[in-house]
Structures are given as structure tokens and as C-alpha cells.
Amino acid sequence: MGRTEEFLERHMLSAASVDADKTLGFVLSEMEKGLEKENGSSLQMIPTYVSPDAAIIPGESVIVMDAGGTNFRTCLVTFDENKQPVISDFRKVGMPGVKEEVSAASFYSILADNIERLVDKSDRIGFCFSYAASITEDHDGIPIVFSKEIKAPEVIGKPLGKNLLAELERRGFDVSGKKVAVVNDTVATLLAAKAGRPDHASSYIGFILGTGTNTAYTEKNSAIAKIQMDEGREIVNVESGCLALELGDLDKEFVSSTKDPSKYWFEKKISGAYLGPFAAHVIEAAIKEGILTESFGERFRSILPLDTTRMSHYLEDCHNPDYDLVKAVGDNEEDAEALYKILKAVIERAGKLTAINLTAAVLRSGEGSNPRLPVVINADGTTFYKTAFLEFYTRLYLDEILEKKHGKYYEMIRIDNSPTLGAAIAGLAI
After folding, report:
1. d(Cα 236, Cα 34) in Å, to the nearest integer?
2. 225 vs 364: CA distance, rounded Å
3. What is the C-alpha to C-alpha distance for residues 309 and 307, in angstroms, rounded to an integer?
4. What is the per-residue pLDDT across 254-282, written as a single tens digit (0 to 9) for each?
5. ∠ CA 349-352-357 to the nearest 5 degrees?
């Protein structure tokens, strides 16, 4: 084993250092604990009260609201006679609370401003809310916490749909027949798979790997001990980015340096907001241990901070003189090779962890035994598709762990406008 490989193994940075069976067992255990009771696990396992059998109704229109990241989108979605979506009257504005803190009144006023033009076109509203929220039996959502720099503290803990309808009623609209279905973006991504693959699937999974990460899957109601539901199945929002998975010493050091060091441990190992900064932390350790030279270190520190995109660029073309990391290694071939191995190891490990996470969701679903009826995974997120080798290694380890070891079959798809389509289907289901 070479010095670089020994460094990667010792710090649990290689994919080989991740015990697939042990890690999968831990994920499944945390999922089960989260289903049993609130706050019983690092995974919230949020019941959504949304059936995976939600039907697409041709000719019916749904008002769609999509609050995600720093943008707020609104439109009307209608499914045609072939159950294909038609999106119309689209509008995108800034998310309230990005530039400055807003009150609850201002928050709902901005939301209402942007759907007033659509209110008379449907009594169904599908609201994709891309922040942590508990879901009630009447399909409303209660925000738990805002991420992504949204500043609207008065909105936390109060029902979104109820307050939106109250604001519309205050403006003179008749809301007596209107219903709002609030869904997480990962749940919407799962529902959108129904539009992309309506037949020949045994179950669906929604998966997002972008700035952050999350997973949704379908679960038997009887297995969700913390709520009382009739027989059947519903979609569960795992909040998988919160998984308290411990790995090596450099992981612990990095997590302790981040905002909210007690939260989002899994997200900080695989997602776009953290892969680049984590790689920078690993590189500094490699310089300290003499795996990379001090002369490289001096040039490297001049290009910090390192983000996931610039990290990926080096793996995409490690000879391109326009890339910062290529400039940093200069003409030192040993540095160039060691850096490539380190960055690729970080990505391969992230791919293996992603595959283990998805394997756990498929196993919990209980489906996928028939290769002609696979579990369809709708994967969304720029990090997953644009980071060098990440999708490749995820598929590689899914084949190894999910299919070969556990005998379960999957199909991975990518559907444009997944949050919008999924929110529309949720709106049709109420």
C-alpha cells in the first residue's frame, strides 16, 4: 500500500474503510427507532399522510407553490388526457426572509401576492416546502426550522396552509372549498416519479443530493408506531441528512468546525455544501503528514476556500491549466497524483454512503424483488449529477450492495421539475 492509500485508510476516507453491512445496519436501526417514537433517533422519519397511490387526474388543475432555497415559484399544473403535465402561468420571485427578517404577516402576504392570479383557477393547492416541517393528518405543514438563511422566526410552529388561506380570506377570496397539501421537496420528488414511470414499478423513492440531501420512501402504516393510521402505506420523509453516522477522525474534526456541529452529520459527508470544504480539510491533513508538499500547500492556501465545483473540476480534467487545483500542483507529479487519489477517494466514499442510504430505503419499502418491477428512484440535485464520479460510484455500489447482496432491483430516473409535479400530485390527492 502506498503512502497516500495508507493515509486514506488510516483516516477512514476510502470507500473500502466503510463497512457496508455495519453501516447499513446502523441506518436501518435508526430508521426503525425513528418510526417508533418522536425524538427516538437521529432520523426524524416524518409521516406525511400522503399515499404513494395518489392518482393523477386528467383535466384537473392544481395551484402549485414551491418554496425552495432562495426562490419562491408559483404556477398552475394541469395533467392532460395522457396524464402528462402542462405547466402554465409560471412566476419566480425571491423567497421572503432571504434579504431581511420578515414577520409572519409579511411572509404570508408575499405568498398570497403571488397566487392571487391563480386562486380562481382551482380549489386545490399543492405546496412544496423545502424546509423541515411536521405534517398533520389534514395535510398541513408546521415548520420546524428554516435553513438556507431564511429569516422568518414567527412562521415556525404554525400551520402553513391554514395561515395562507386566512390571508386569502382576509383579502376577500372565498376559501371555503379550498384545500392545501404541504409536502417536503423530497416527498414531491417521489410523487413526481409516478408521472415519469406510472407503470412497471413496485415502489418509488425520492432522493435529493444537492446543497443538502434527503430521502423519502413508502412505508407500511402498521410499521409507523408513533402514529395511528388505517391499514395501507404512506410516504415517509426520512430527513436522512441528519443521520448521526460517525466515521474517521478527520470527519469529526471537520464536523466540529461547521455551523450546528451536532446536526446533519450524514449531510456533511456527502452533500454539495460540504464535500469541497471537507476535501480542503483532508488536504490540509495530507500536507501536515507529508503526503502533499509544503510548496503545494502554500499555493493551495492561496486559492481557498475550496468548493465542491472546483474540487470536481480537478477530477474532470486534472491537466487543464485553467483550473485552480491544477495550478496549485504545478509540475510536481507526486503532488498531482496524490491530490487526485485523495479527491477521488472522498467522492467514492460519498457514493458508497449514498448507495447504502438508498439501499436502506429500498429494504424498508419491502419491494424490488422482481427485476421486472424495480423500485424506481427519482434522483434530483446538481451535486449528484454534476460532481465527477459521484453518480458513477453510487450506481456501482447500488449494484454491489442492493442488487448482488440483497437481491433487490432498482431503476434510477431523473425527472425535470420534480418538486412542481410532485406538489401538483399531492394537491390532487386531497
Report:
1. 11
2. 14
3. 6
4. 999 998 899 899 999 999 999 999 999 99
5. 125
| pLDDT tens for each residue of 19-35 | 999 999 999 999 999 99
Amino acid sitting at position 33: K
pLDDT tens, residue by residue, 330-388:
999 999 999 999 999 999 999 999 999 999 999 999 999 999 999 999 999 999 999 99
Q: What is the C-alpha to C-alpha distance for residues 59 and 244, in angstroms, rounded to an integer?
A: 45
C-alpha cell recorded at residue 63: 395551484
Ramachandran bin of 387, using left for φ above 0, alpha for ψ from -120 to 50, beta for the remaining angles: beta
Residue 292 CA: distances (Å) to CA of 16, 136, 282, 298, 342: 22, 53, 11, 11, 10
Cα 338 to Cα 5: distance, rounded to the nearest angstrom: 9
Q: Which residue has the cell 424495480?
A: 374
State the pLDDT confidence band at 149, using cuts at 50, 70 and 90: low
The C-alpha atoms of residue 28 and residue 366 are separated, in whole angstroms, by 13
- Grid coordinates representing 111 are 405568498
Position 272, amino acid:
G
Cell output for 154: 414567527
**For residue 426, which of 158, 115, 187 has the smallest C-alpha distance?**
187
Query: Max CA-CA distance within the chain?
Result: 73
* Cα dihedral across residues 229, 235, 241, 246: positive or negative: positive
Placement of cell 456541529 in the chain: 261
Q: Residues in the chain, how many? A: 430
Q: Is the pLDDT of residue 420 over 80?
A: yes
The residue type found at 323 is Y
Half-sphere exposure of 306 (CA within 13 A, CB side): 25
Using H for helix, E for strand and C for coil, what is the string for the chain?
A: CCHHHHHHHHCCCCHHHCCHHHHHHHHHHHHHHHHHCCCCCCCCCEECCCCCCCCCCCCCEEEEEEEECCEEEEEEEEECCCCCEEEEEEEEEECCCCCCCCCHHHHHHHHHHCCHHHHHHCCEEEEEECCEEEECCCCCEEEEECCCCCCCHHHCCCCHHHHHHHHHHHCCCCCCCCEEEEECHHHHHHHHHHHHCCCCCCEEEEEEECCCEEEEEEEEHHHCCCCCCCCCEEEEECCHHHCCCCCCHHHHHHHHCCCCCCCCCCHHHHCHHHHHHHHHHHHHHHHHCCCCCHHHHHHHHCCCCCCHHHHHHHHHCCCCCCCHHHHHHCCCHHHHHHHHHHHHHHHHHHHHHHHHHHHHHHHHHCCCCCCCCCEEEEEECHHHHHCCCHHHHHHHHHHHHHHHHCCCCEEEECCCCHHHHHHHHHHHCC
